[in-house]
Each structure stands twice: as structure tokens, then as C-alpha cells.
Design a protein that fits this description.
This protein has 201 residues and is mainly alpha-helical. Helix content is 58%, strand content 7%. The longest helix is centred in the N-terminal third of the chain and has 35 residues, at 26-60.
Length: 201
């Protein structure tokens, strides 16, 4: 299917195994991982700014009543506001998930090019499995990160619900150290990619 429009061009055609393998070079995957990491950093900075604005509005709405207690007097803090901004974290964590997944795939392909041979990739979204297949031993915090980000890549960062009840969540929460652990893990994956280190724990 080849279509050209004013906003861009879409070209799709079957490619040979060699061309497919070229597109799936580890350098392409790590480059994409780095782009996703930069995007996640920008999104996080924007979210941090929004949360600071939220906290400022919260404190501005506090006033002392006759008893000396602080009470909220304004309309800045509402459930719809919290729900809307909570949902904004989905695309951010989806981007974080894409960054880690692409870095893991770069290392996996670097170590075994056959996993994208014969015109087909056998790589899925399960980040813990990708790490295992690439012979990367995960730290406990990295395992938790992989499990969480796999959910965001598969559905929680894309859709309001999973494909079935069993996989759906009532709620998802992240700790204050999430982004610190994300940055540390990404840096370690880059180190593994650059040096070919298998076990550097």
C-alpha cells in the first residue's frame, strides 16, 4: 500500500530478509531507546511542573478557620482534576516503558541476531523475559520496574482497560523513587550495550 497525502507519505511493501535485518540492527534499537528516554524526560519535567502548580494552588486555597485549623476554601482541588492528571501519567509511563523495552531489545539483538532473522521478530513486550533472554540479571527494583512498565506498554499506558478482567487493575500507583530507578536502570542498560557486559551487578 503506497499512499501520498499532503501531511505525509505512507509506503508499505514486503521487504527481503536482509533489509529487515538491517532495520533491526542493535544500533537502531538503542537509538530509538535513547529518543524515548529523552521524550520521557521532557514529559516528566512537564508533569513535575504541573504538580508544583497543583501544590501551589492547594496551599493558596488553605485558610485558617476560627479554631486555627487549616481548611480548603477554593475549588482548585477537585476529584476531576486529580483523575485527569493521574491519567496523564499513563502516556509518560508508556514512554518510559518503550525506552526500557527498546534498550533491552537492542541488547538482545546484539547478543543473538537470529532473534530477528528470517523476516520476523520473535521479541515480545515482556520486559523481564527480554532481560532473561539477553542474559541480564535484574536487581529487585529493576524486576518491579519491568513488571510495571510491561503493563503500561501492553495496555495501561494506551487504553483505559486491559483486554480482559484478569489483567485489568483497580488502581496503579508509583513510588517517589520510580523515576530515579528508571534513570538508573536505563543507564545500566546503556552501559551493558556499550560494553557488552553480561553481569555487572
Amino acid at each position: 500500500m503506497n499512499e501520498e497525502h499532503r501531511i505525509g507519505k505512507v509506503s508499505r511493501a514486503a521487504m527481503d530478509h536482509e533489509a529487515f535485518a538491517r532495520l533491526n540492527r542493535p544500533s537502531n534499537w538503542i537509538g530509538y531507546a535513547r529518543a524515548m528516554h529523552r521524550a520521557a524526560t521532557l514529559l516528566q519535567a512537564n508533569m513535575d511542573s504541573e504538580m508544583r502548580r497543583f501544590r501551589d494552588a492547594f496551599h493558596a486555597d488553605l485558610a485558617k478557620d476560627g479554631s486555627g485549623a487549616f481548611v480548603a476554601t477554593g475549588e482548585s482541588i477537585t476529584e476531576p482534576w486529580l483523575v485527569r492528571h493521574g491519567r496523564d501519567y499513563g502516556p509518560l509511563l508508556l514512554t518510559c516503558g518503550f525506552a526500557i523495552e527498546a534498550a533491552l531489545k537492542a541488547i538482545r539483538i546484539q547478543r543473538d541476531a537470529a532473534c530477528v532473522a528470517n523476516g520476523k521478530s520473535k521479541l515480545g513486550h515482556d520486559q523481564a523475559q527480554l532481560a532473561n533472554d539477553a542474559e541480564i540479571l535484574l536487581l529487585p527494583a529493576e524486576m518491579v520496574l519491568c513488571l510495571l512498565l510491561t503493563d503500561f506498554v501492553e495496555f495501561a499506558g494506551r487504553y483505559p482497560s486491559a483486554v480482559n478482567e484478569r489483567k485489568s487493575h483497580n488502581s496503579i500507583s508509583i513510588g517517589d523513587d520510580f523515576f530515579l530507578e528508571f534513570r538508573k536502570f536505563f543507564a545500566r542498560l546503556e552501559q551493558i550495550y556499550q560494553g557488552g557486559v553480561r553481569q555487572d551487578l
